[in-house]
Design a protein that fits this description.
Layout: H1 2-22, H2 27-59, H3 70-106, E1 110-114, E2 120-123, H4 125-131, H5 135-138, H6 143-146, H7 150-158, E3 165-168, E4 179-187, E5 191-198, H8 200-236, H9 241-273, E6 282-284, H10 285-307, E7 312-315, E8 321-324, H11 327-344, E9 350-357, E10 363-369, H12 391-396, H13 403-413, E11 417-423, E12 427-434, E13 439-441
Parallel strand pairs: 7-9
Antiparallel strand pairs: 1-2, 1-5, 3-4, 4-5, 6-8, 8-13, 9-10, 10-12, 11-12
Helix pairs in contact: 1-2, 2-3, 8-9, 9-13, 10-11, 11-13
Bound molecules: adenosine-5'-diphosphate.
């Protein structure tokens, strides 16, 4: 600043001197004119530099070097540094904001930020899926106008956000219900944070658990009622030896039924709770087939004797291979398919069990029968627990309704594939295809 003042006065003195030299006749006037002329020139030059600086500032491009030097240059440099520092701060804040928004975007829950009037300020991708929001269309819209559920409207207006609210999700139908759990959290000055969670799977699991408990109780109650009825009869009535024998026989049957049910339940819970079998243990197919054949013939003999039926049981091949996996699980799955075929196949029917190596080296275990067959609408549900097409036939032949659920689990755990094909009135074919990596040919 001092140098500027010194420079200005020096310039004036130089102006005075020049005027004095140019007009030696009237040196006073010459000096004055020189001072005024040099002062004007200084002013013009200074204004010009100031104007250039103003243009540079207005352009806002601080990356360009300052257009002038001296005082104006220093001002420009200071402005440049200040703007640079501000830009860095803004960019840091923007980066941090982007990080936050990125984290919210990555959240598995839906997040919607609402202003004090309930208008949408921001939402993440999950929220847009939950509520069908569109970033271009719905920002600054009232959320209450977009989520038309009456329960939500009451929740939003009620201002008591201490609990979660269940609302149907977008595209929810009676056949494919979608359930959302949402909660509002106040923050800032009257703003609201809305969190939404898809609880469809959770609710389905809970419904399944309830159904399962109800089914198990029902399955156990029937034989239990019969058993306790007979116990009471045996305790209160004097019975003949033949009657006693008959009653005890029925009681044994009911006890056996409960035992089978409990065994199947335990098997299912083992299958669900243990890691899948590895590839290290090998199960001999010929040994398993021999055991299955023995069981099938025994069961068929019992059922045929009871109903006067004759069944043709054919074990076409012994399957000269080994499968890697759990011997008990594989036997249980195969045995369920074979016993089902025997149990459901009618008079003069045929049950055909086979093992075949397919072209790609995988192995197919199949059970074909000429039983009643299954209508197409039942087939996708057969592997559900306690799902039965023909309840009375299932119970009469000692079924628990869990056989195919066990088969499904075993098949999944061995990386295999279960296929069910059936024509009502003609019969059914159940097959399990084991992948190549679980097969070892014998001999
Ligand atoms: P269940 O103990 O009742 O046999 P499963 O889970 O083994 O239970 O089978 C489910 C239902 O599938 C059975 O109740 C039956 O209605 C039907 N089903 C299974 N196998 C056959 C078959 N080979 N032929 C006809 N229906 C079958």
């Amino acid at each position: 600043m001092i140098w500027r003042a010194v420079g200005f006065f020096g310039f004036q003195v130089a102006g005075g001197l020049c005027g004095w030299l140019v007009l030696p006749v009237q040196p006073d006037k010459g000096a004055l004119a020189g001072v005024v002329a040099f002062g004007l020139a200084w002013f013009m030059a200074d204004t010009f530099r100031g104007a250039r600086l103003l243009r540079w500032v207005r352009a806002g491009d601080v990356a360009q070097p300052a257009p002038t030097s001296g005082l104006w240059g220093e001002i420009a440099e200071r402005v440049r540094r200040l703007v640079r520092a501000r830009e860095r701060m803004t960019s840091d804040s923007q980066d941090r904001l982007n990080d936050f928004l990125g984290a919210l975007q990555a959240s598995p829950n839906g997040v919607v930020l609402l202003d004090a009037q309930g208008r949408i300020e921001w939402f993440n991708h999950t929220a847009s899926q939950h509520f069908g929001l569109d970033a271009r269309r719905d920002l600054q819209q009232y959320l209450g106008n977009l989520v038309r559920d009456p329960g939500f409207a009451a929740y939003l207006a009620g201002r008591d956000y201490s609990h979660e609210l269940a609302v149907p999700g977008r595209g929810s139908t009676a056949l494919r219900p979608v359930s959302l759990s949402i909660q509002l959290h106040p923050y800032g000055e009257g703003r609201l944070l809305l969190l939404s969670r898809d609880v469809t799977a959770l609710e389905q699991a809970e419904a399944m658990r309830r159904d399962f408990v109800a089914n198990v109780s029902h399955e156990i109650r029937t034989p239990l009622t019969v058993l306790s009825g007979f116990v009471e009869t045996l305790q209160t009535l004097t019975l003949s030896e033949t009657e006693r024998e008959r009653y005890l026989g029925t009681m044994a049957l009911q006890a056996q039924r409960m035992q089978t049910l409990v065994n199947d339940l335990l098997m299912l819970s083992r299958l669900e709770g243990s890691p899948p079998p590895g590839l290290a243990d090998w199960v001999s197919m010929p040994i398993m087939m021999a055991q299955l054949e023995r069981e099938a013939r025994e069961l068929s003999a019992v059922l045929c004797a009871k109903a006067g039926r004759i069944q043709n049981i054919v074990f076409a091949s012994q399957g000269q291979c080994e499968l890697s996996g759990s011997a008990s699980e594989l036997l249980s799955a195969a045995s369920n398919l074979v016993t089902n075929a025997v149990r459901y196949t009618s008079l003069n029917g045929e049950v055909h069990v086979g093992v075949e190596t397919l072209l790609d080296g995988s192995v197919e275990f199949s059970v074909r029968d000429t039983g009643p067959g299954i209508a197409p609408e039942h087939i996708p549900r057969l592997t559900e627990r306690f799902y039965r097409v023909d309840r009375s036939r299932s119970r009469d032949t000692g079924g628990t309704g869990l056989g195919l659920a066990i088969v499904k689990h075993v098949v999944q755990r061995h990386g295999a594939e279960l296929t069910i094909a059936s024509t009502p009135g003609q019969g059914s074919r159940f097959s399990i295809i084991f992948p190549l990596e679980r097969v070892r040919q014998l001999g």
